[in-house]
Structure formats: structure tokens, C-alpha cells
């Protein structure tokens, strides 16, 4: 079969220009995604300073984080579908502008209510921005041989964003002011907005004839209740009504959501998307990694600052080797392994590496040593997360119809967000319970208190190791062996199939 080769003066230059254009699109959406991910942790470092400056109580402090999580987690599926209907460039730009405006509003806060409101509005626009960014990446590299490389870079950004947030938050809080942890988003936004206006293609929304109102209401209400219940579990017992009632109601509403989606002609979330084994396994992998990842960052941060007396900046620097390993493993798993052996082995291997790293972290001591007790362990966890996140995000958005790219991308972000909320709530309650049991019957001297706190950290690390180990087994069984490739079936509909090698 003969192939037509473009003339050097006609076709080659436009093709090269389009290929170069794709990488600039990747840069734009990666900056936006980094802004969203690091905002989850950057305010954790700034909270004590913000609390002192604005004078609000410890009981209210958690709402600075929860307000963002509630809006973000509960509206992601709606944001993804709006991107499909309105057009991803439009929703991306609206999300950027809204997120920046909310950041400026929160940074100028004069009281708790103003700061919490700004954080909630940030979450709202993040729910529009995050699925728009990932779906733009999906459609830009849909049929390109560069797709693995693009998702390797994007996955590295997602996996390292939380640690970068800790470093950046520490530096801004220590050397400037806590308000800059919010104002810094304006700097990110300017570059991303200019790139979006110039580079992103003008494209109208996809043909989605009607908006699924019952699905929208039940999805938002169900996810809101689940996230709110998990947030309460961080500060209350699991048996407290404000925890279990909201969790039970949230699960019940989500069951109703699934019921509606099976009967709607144009559902908010077509069940064929999570129903595919490879995509479903990828969503689960992102969920489990989110739970373990945020738990790792949380308790290692506590240990470094409370036990080893690290400053916020030094704490952030301590995570840099882990960030580097996430990036390296993301490149290896997505560029080298995924095209050859598929996602099953990299995901399962990554889970096992992360489990080993978390189990190794249980050897920490009160008078700890970072090069011996933290550095090699977090490097192993970072390698594990890099092997999981990038391939899982690639496969989770592979082979979906163009009209479903936004909501499929939203499912990735929802999985990570809910996974992080579950991980933080579960591990926090387990650590607190371990401390309480350790102190029972003992005189609470400073040494005993320190030992109890250390016992709480190691308990959280053991459970996190168990979560990753279980994830290796479950995802290893659920994701099919072999290379996963999209094939076209039906009218403009792609489904992913597994090709055995």
C-alpha cells in the first residue's frame, strides 16, 4: 500500500506546527491542574497564621478546608457535563477566571465568613475547571502517539501537586504572608488564561439533547452528604449523628442516582463509562491512591513539624525527593510500560511499592532521623504513586465518546477527591483512637504523650499500607491484562478493549 508523503514546503510544516501546538495546550492545562491540586494542601500550612490573624476558633478552622472540598467534590460531575455541553474552552476560561476571583476574595478576607466563602467559591469553579482541563487533554491527544507522554507529564503534575503545595505554602507563609497562599493563584491564572485564549481551539459543545436534572440533583446531593459526613468524621466520632447520618443519606441518594441513570435517555453519567472494567479499575486506583496519598502527606507533615520540629519551608523541601520520584515513575510507567504491557502490572506494582513504603514508615522514632527514617520510605511511596496515577488517568479517559470526555474526566477528579476525603477521615480517626487507647491507664507525662502521638502516626501508616496492598489485589484483578486500546464501535462511540500480548 502506498503512502502519500507531504511535500516539505506544504504539509510537513503545518504538521509540525500542530504537534508543537499540542504541547503548549498540555502546558496550559497542566498549570491549571497544578493550581487546583496544590490548593488542597497549600492552605493547610497557612491555616494557623490565618486563624491568628482573623481570630477564629479551632472549631471553625476545619471549615476553611471543608468549604473547598464540599463545593469541589459535590459539583465535579455537573462541571464535567457542562464542559461537554457548553464547550471545554469556554468552561475552562470561566473556571480560570472564577477561581482567580475567588482566590483574590479569600486573600482579602477580613473575617472567617469571608475566607470560608472565598474557599467555597474556589471549590465551585475548580469543579468546572478540573474536568475541563483533563477532557481538553484527552481530546487534544485522543489519537496521537504522544498521548502516553502527555499523560505521563499530566499525571506527574497531579501526583506531585499536593507536595508542591506544602512547599509553596510554607515558603509564602514564612517569608510573605498567609494571604499569598491564595494570591499566588492569580499568577498561575494569568499565564494559563493567556494560553487558553490563544491556543485552545474554538469548538462548540457536543450534541447533548437534554440536561439530566434528576441525575444532577441526586449526584450533587449525594456527593455533598458523603463529603460532609467524611469531613465530620475528622473531628467527631464515626458514631456521631452528624457523621453516620450524612454518610448513610449520601450513599442512599447515590444509589438513587444510579437508578435514575439506568433509565435516563441522556444521563449525566452514562454508566457505560465506569462500567468498563479497565476504566472502572482505573477510577478505583485513583480513589485508593488519593486516600493513601493525602494520608501520607498529612501524617508525615505532622511528624516532621511536631516531632522533628521542622519549619514549614523545611517540611516542604523534605518532600521534594518524593515529588521527583513521582515524576520519574510517571514517565516510566506511561511512556515505556503502558504501551507494551498495559495498565494492570504498573498499577498493581505501584500499589505494592506504596504499601511497602508506608509499612517502612512505621519505623519512625521520637528522635527521628530524616535521611534514614523518612527519605527512603517516601521515595518508595513516590515511585508507587507515579506508577499508579499516570497510567490510571490515561486509561480512565481512553476510548470514551467525545461527547462524554468531560464527565469521564470529572469521574477521575471525583475519585481522587472522595478518596482523599475518605483517607484523611479514616486515618485521622484511627490515629486518634490509637492515641486514646495508648494513654488509657497511663500517666500523661510529656514522654508518654510523645509516645502516644508516635503510636497514632504509625497506626495510620500501617492502615495506609493495608489500603495500598488491598488496592494492588483488587485493581490487579479488575483491570484486564494486556494492552488497552480504544476501538470504534457504533456511531461515533469508542469503547476500550484489552489486547492480550
Short description:
The protein is mostly helical and 501 residues long. The protein has helices spanning 8-54, 58-86, 88-107, 112-140, 147-175, 180-199, 213-235, 241-261, 272-275, 277-307, 312-318, 320-341, 344-360, 370-373, 375-396, 405-439, 446-478, and strands spanning 483-488, 494-499.
Mind explaining what this structure looks like?
It is built from 17 helices and two strands. The chain has helices at residues 8-54, 58-86, 88-107, 112-140, 147-175, 180-199, 213-235, 241-261, 272-275, 277-307, 312-318, 320-341, 344-360, 370-373, 375-396, 405-439, 446-478, and strands at residues 483-488, 494-499. The longest helix has 47 residues, at 8-54.
Mean pLDDT: 82
Rounded radius of gyration (Å): 22 Å
Q: How helix-rich are the residues, as a percent range?
A: over 70%
First-last Cα distance:
26 Å
- The number of helical segments is 17
Helix-and-strand structural type: mainly alpha
Low-pLDDT residue intervals, each spanning 5 or more residues: 1-17, 486-501
So what's the overall shape?
Answer: globular
Q: Give the biggest sheet.
A: 2 strands, antiparallel
Listing every helix as H and every strand as E from the N terminus to the C terminus, the arrangement reads HHHHHHHHHHHHHHHHHEE
Give the DSSP E fraction (strand runs of 2 or more residues).
Answer: under 5%
**Largest sheet, order of strands side by side?**
1-2
Q: How many individual β-strands?
A: 2
Amino acid at each position: 500500500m502506498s503512502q502519500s508523503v507531504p511535500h516539505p514546503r506544504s504539509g510537513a510544516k503545518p504538521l509540525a506546527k500542530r504537534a508543537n501546538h499540542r504541547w503548549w495546550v498540555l502546558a496550559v492545562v497542566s498549570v491549571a491542574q497544578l493550581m487546583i491540586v496544590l490548593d488542597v494542601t497549600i492552605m493547610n500550612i497557612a491555616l494557623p497564621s490565618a486563624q491568628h490573624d482573623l481570630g477564629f476558633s479551632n472549631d471553625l478552622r476545619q471549615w476553611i478546608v471543608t468549604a473547598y472540598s464540599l463545593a469541589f467534590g459535590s459539583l465535579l460531575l455537573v462541571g464535567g457535563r457542562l464542559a461537554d455541553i457548553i464547550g471545554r474552552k469556554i468552561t475552562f476560561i470561566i473556571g480560570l477566571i472564577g477561581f482567580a476571583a475567588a482566590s483574590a476574595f479569600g486573600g482579602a478576607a477580613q473575617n472567617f465568613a469571608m475566607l470560608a466563602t472565598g474557599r467555597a467559591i474556589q471549590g465551585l469553579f475548580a469543579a468546572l475547571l478540573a474536568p475541563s482541563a483533563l477532557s481538553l487533554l484527552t481530546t487534544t491527544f485522543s489519537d496521537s502517539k504522544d498521548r502516553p507522554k502527555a499523560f505521563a507529564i499530566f499525571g506527574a503534575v497531579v501526583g506531585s501537586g499536593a507536595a508542591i503545595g506544602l512547599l509553596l505554602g510554607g515558603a509564602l507563609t514564612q517569608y510573605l504572608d498567609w494571604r499569598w497562599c491564595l494570591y499566588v493563584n492569580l499568577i498561575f491564572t494569568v499565564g494559563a488564561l493567556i494560553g487558553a485564549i490563544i491556543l485552545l481551539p474554538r469548538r462548540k459543545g457536543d450534541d447533548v439533547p437534554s440536561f439530566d436534572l434528576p441525575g444532577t440533583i441526586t449526584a450533587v446531593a449525594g456527593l455533598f452528604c458523603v463529603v460532609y459526613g467524611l469531613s465530620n468524621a475528622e473531628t467527631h466520632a464515626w458514631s456521631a449523628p452528624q457523621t453516620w447520618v450524612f454518610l448513610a443519606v449520601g450513599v442512599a441518594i447515590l444509589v438513587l442516582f444510579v437508578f435514575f441513570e439506568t433509565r435516563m435517555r441522556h444521563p449525566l453519567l452514562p454508566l457505560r463509562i465506569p462500567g468498563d472494567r479497565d476504566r472502572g479499575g482505573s477510577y478505583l486506583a485513583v480513589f485508593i491512591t488519593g486516600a493513601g496519598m493525602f494520608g501520607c502527606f498529612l501524617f508525615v507533615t505532622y511528624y516532621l513539624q511536631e516531632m522533628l520540629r521542622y519549619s514549614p519551608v523545611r517540611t516542604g523541601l523534605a518532600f521534594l525527593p518524593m515529588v521527583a520520584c513521582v515524576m520519574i515513575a510517571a514517565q516510566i510507567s506511561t511512556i515505556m510500560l503502558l504501551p507494551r504491557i498495559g495498565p494492570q502490572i504498573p498499577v498493581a506494582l505501584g500499589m505494592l511499592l506504596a504499601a511497602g513504603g508506608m509499612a517502612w514508615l512505621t519505623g519512625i522514632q521520637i528522635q527521628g532521623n530524616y535521611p534514614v527514617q523518612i527519605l527512603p520510605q517516601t521515595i518508595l511511596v513516590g515511585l508507587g504513586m507515579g506508577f499508579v496515577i499516570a497510567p490510571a488517568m490515561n486509561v480512565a479517559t481512553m476510548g470514551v465518546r467525545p461527547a462524554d470526555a468531560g464527565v469521564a474526566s470529572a469521574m477521575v477528579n471525583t475519585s481522587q477527591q472522595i478518596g482523599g476525603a475518605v483517607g484523611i477521615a479514616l486515618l485521622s480517626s484511627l490515629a486518634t483512637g490509637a492515641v486514646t487507647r495508648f494513654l488509657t491507664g497511663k500517666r500523661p507525662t510529656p514522654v508518654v504523650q510523645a509516645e502516644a502521638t508516635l503510636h497514632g502516626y504509625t497506626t495510620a501508616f500501617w492502615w495506609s499500607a493495608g489500603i495500598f496492598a488491598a488496592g494492588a489485589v483488587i485493581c490487579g484483578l479488575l483491570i484486564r491484562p494486556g494492552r488497552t486500546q480504544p476501538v470504534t464501535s457504533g456511531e461515533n462511540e469508542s469503547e476500550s478493549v484489552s489486547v492480550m500480548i
